[in-house]
Amino acid sequence: MSILPRVALSRRGLPGDPVAALTPHADVVEWAHERPPNPAELRDLAADCDAVLCWLGDRIDADLFAAAPRLRVAALASAGYDGVDLAAVRAAGVVVSHVPGILQETTADLAFALILMARRRLGAAVDAMRAGGWTDNRMDGFLGLDVHGATLGIVGFGQIGQAVARRARGFGMRVHHHGGRSDGEGLSQRVTLDELLRTSDVVSLHLPLTDATRGLIGAAELALMKPTATLVNTARGGIVDEAALADALRAGRLHSAGLDVMTDEPRRDPADPLFGVPNLVVLPHVGSATEATRAAMVDLAVRNVLEVLAGRPALTPVPGTRPVPG
Predict the structure, then answer these.
(1) Active-site residue, selected from the candidate residues 11, 98, 206, 236
(2) Which end of the chain is more exposed for a tag (fewer CB within 10 A), N or C?
(3) Contacts of 185 (CB under 8 A, 6+ apart)
(4) Tens digits of per-residue pLDDT, 177-212?
């Protein structure tokens, strides 16, 4: 009688029912709590496992590999992999996969939602109404700035950036971008980062977090932007200097901003200074959070697990790592 491989799930209640998909092929161990595991708890969970299916924020590093010597694959149900120690992965010979090519349209929808919320001051309007502050229909109440006809600058012109550019067509926006290898079939014109920051009414960030992009938008870059401009970040929190952004917004050097990502996630304290910044809309990292998209992400992570456990290459290994163990 064959012994099934053991697979750990680092979250409970994942969309798409990965337990049902994995159970015919593996012995599944699911994290038991609503909160995510800390690094030590993840190591304990994976200690005697052949595979672990992880989510954003889980640390994949040498300590995990040392604690889980049987581990053959760590499958991320996220497109980003900035929590992965790539050098440790290569040294251990463990396969690490991610889920590219799934969430771009859903995240682009969310980026445009943030553009509209921040630029039109919709978050402030909702907050005031809920607090009883809607006392009359003032002509000067909650005046925002137009999105239609504005200039959109996209920093990072991969799949998500190009999806945002396609949506901008419907708003009659002029679009230019920095980064990427093409103009997205005429969607945008490539410019330098400084030119993009100086000329854009809306700047939308769509970059991975790397050593090169960490702190890319700091005080000097914000100073280049128009005082009537809006900054939106649905990429990774570390790309923006949050203190510099808060200072620019409070001083009126920037009109508004929308963040779906922050440097330290999750942010639990209602008194967090960032939450009180005027003209700043903050969301809890929900860019890919639709039922269909999240289920598709988990499904691809499951398929990566099953392929590797069957002795085949991962379908979508993290770039620069091995698609098979060893």
Answers:
(1) 236
(2) N
(3) none
(4) 998 776 767 889 999 999 999 999 999 999 999 889
Task: Let me know if 236 is a catalytic residue.
Answer: yes
Which residues, other chains included, contact 247 with Cβ-Cβ below 8 Å and sequence gap of 6+?
A: 219, 253
Q: For residues 217 and 205, is the Cβ–Cβ distance under 8 A? A: yes
285 is an active site residue: yes
The amino acid that residue 289 corresponds to is A
Verdict on whether the full-model pTM lies above 0.70: yes
Residue 287 · residue 234 · CB < 8 Å: yes
- At residue 159, φ and ψ (nearest 5 deg) are -60, -45
The amino acid at residue 63 is D
Give SS3 for 24.
coil
In the β-sheet with 189-190, what is the strand arrangement from edge to edge?
189-190, 174-178, 151-155, 202-205, 230-233, 256-259, 280-282
Of residues 98, 177, 285, 294, which has the active-site annotation? 285
Known catalytic membership, residue 198: no
